[in-house]
Amino acid sequence: MANLSLRNITKSFGAVQVIPDINLEIEDGEFVVFVGPSGCGKSTLLRLIAGLEDASGGDIRIDGESVMQVPAADRGVAMVFQSYALYPHMTVRQNLSFGLENIHMPKEEINRRVEDAGKLLQIETLLERRPRQLSGGQRQRVAIGRAITRDPKIFLFDEPLSNLDAELRVFMRVEITKLHERLGNTMIYVTHDQIEAMTMADKIVVLRKGVIEQVGAPLELYNRPLNTFVAGFIGSPRMNLIEGVVETEANGTVRFTASGLPPLSLPGSGASLKAGGKATLGIRPEDFVLNPDGGQGWPATISVAEQHGANSFLHCTLANGEAILVHEQGQSKVGRGDTLIVGPRSGQWHLFDADGLRVEVQ
Amino acid sequence: MSDTALPKSPASVRGILLGRRGRGRFDLTDMLTYGFLILGLLVMFTPVAWVVVSSFKTQANLQEFPPTVLPYASETAVIDGFDAPLPLFDVTQQDGRKVRLAQVRRVGLNAQMVDPADPGAKRIVVPVVNAVPVRQVRLAVENYANLVAETGADLWRYVYNSFFITVVATIITLIMNSMAAFALSKYRFAGSNVALVSILSTLMIPATVVLVPTYLIVAQLGLVGNLWGVILPTVATPTGVFLLRQYMLTIPDELIEAARMDHASEWRIFWRIVLPLSSPALAVVAIFSIMSRWNDFLLPLIVLNRREVYTLQLALNSFQSEFEVRYDLLLAMTTLTALPLACAFIFLQRYITTGIASTGIK
After folding, report:
1. Per the CB < 8 Å rule, is A102 touching B258?
2. Kind of pairing, strands A186-191 and A154-158?
3. Least Cα separation, residue A186 to chain B (angstroms)
4. E strands, B134-217, where?
5. In order of start, what are the domains of chain A with their CATH numbers?
6. How does pLDDT run across B85-128, given as a tens digit for each residue?
7. Interface subset of B 245-264, CB within 8 angstroms of A
8. ipTM greater than 0.85, yes or no?
9. B328: closest CA among B66, B156, B148?
10. Which of A38, A120, B126, B129 is deepest in the core (most CB within 10 A)?
11. In the structure, what pLDDT confidence band is assigned to residue A229 with cuts at 50, 70 and 90?
12. B152-359 fold
């Protein structure tokens, strides 16, 4: 078990700079998820930590000691690959024990660890099979088991669930979370799926183009996204972002006007808001109120009403042609072509300035 | 053609032999395919069959013109009063009756015959034109017995030399080629492409062109008349390197990274991961190597200059001298020499087809 610290990490492949400059502290025992769209450098960052790639600059410290010059095998990290990377010609037992044999561990100790990992992951009956005789979920378990037998300080997972079907993914998500609770090791998990990030992480690191956009607990990111990128990325279905102009009014309200729409008066005053400045208003689908009491809101025409049974998702078009998504609890009475007035729930909206950064509104 | 001829299972021999395009009638493409295959079979297999059949003909039968398809031998009979068995003839007498007589000797256009049923009677003089030898299909297996008897212990020495060269050279070829292929496929280093291209460019130089330089080097190393002088010059083959490299490119890098994280040394990765996974390609290279080494003639001819180090192919050559060609022995030995390769092919053809298909080159 160990804490990990990345200091001024940079990485370039030839002329292409993948990671400009990253600083990150990961505490002992944390479950950290790197999330971001494909090509954001999250896998590269993981491979830098693993030692499979060399950083172009900066320092990686595990337990306070620099591991920049330490080969991958000696860093005390174990990696679960996206493709599982099981040795196809070896049995599950050989797969699990290969790494231990390489460090000349006594046979009894190897057997004990393999049996323990097998029991922990419920693969003890599969030990004499070869990977191709296993299902996707079983291969996944073997890949995790191979990491466990090495008893690493830090587990690294590179999109481990992306090759599984939806149902199994939900199941393995819970399994990995339980595993983390049982083992208590530091785990770093890379995914592009924000649901996985939200459900598993102690701490989420949102990356875009090699830059950390925000670090924080899942709900912190959900409730207070620092910029429009995080706001749009975290949460499913995604937040509605409407561009407009903002004016601060004297009586402590913010007046937001999107072109072609009636202005909205939102309670609160933003310190850094400039009157007449461009801004983006973010409202999550579940934070819309239909036909609010005060009558304040935007008229929206429903183009598609999706009934999920417990929830309804209303795809609407605003008067200015912009599409928004509204989430209504329960089964909706409205149908296609109906026009509603939609407005934000009090206090459940996010304002971003012209640069896309969050504006705190009291 | 009835539908009953359709193959039930594509894997059965019947299925392979009677396979047709689609399900219905005998198509034009079927005719063309079978026609082409049968033509190919005739062109390639007839000479082989001719050699094998001819190896069972007596020397006299071999020198006949026009040649006979099947091996024939004159029938003989042991007759009282004569030491050697006498050849039998069917003789048409002047009155038109046919009798079977044994020939004692031939004088000019007449032959002296004796009736086998009545050996004590007077010799009968018969014109040769009226006598037709009595012949029967008979396998002259004594060719093989004579071969063993005449060459004696030397034969086993030739067999040993050929086997030694083939086996040792193939093993060394596999090791050398696979190591080069591993480096060229899995390591990123400056000049890897130059190395690959220069290895491949040696394909453009015919072996006969470098024969003399090769001999000079072998001579300088003192390996003339030594089996190693044949083994060493061609242990690295460009086709082998290329074929193995192409195959190794298909082994995922993640496997090697996983092994690296499992504390496996590069040497161990090569032996335990890459080589076992390349076995189809290794089988192809092995088969090519076995074929070329076993059939190799030119290099052994100039390097191996003493009878004790002759290979089978050189021994074959020694059956034809300036003055006579021992066709009976030559053909018997040719058949024997081809047998090991034929066996190797029958057992390894599965690997040849899968291996060649999976390496994507021919």
Report:
1. no
2. parallel
3. 18
4. 135-137
5. 4-227 (3.40.50.300), 240-359 (2.40.50.140)
6. 888 888 888 887 888 888 888 888 888 888 887 877 778 888 88
7. 252, 254-255, 257-264
8. no
9. B148
10. B126
11. very high
12. MetI-like fold (1.10.3720)
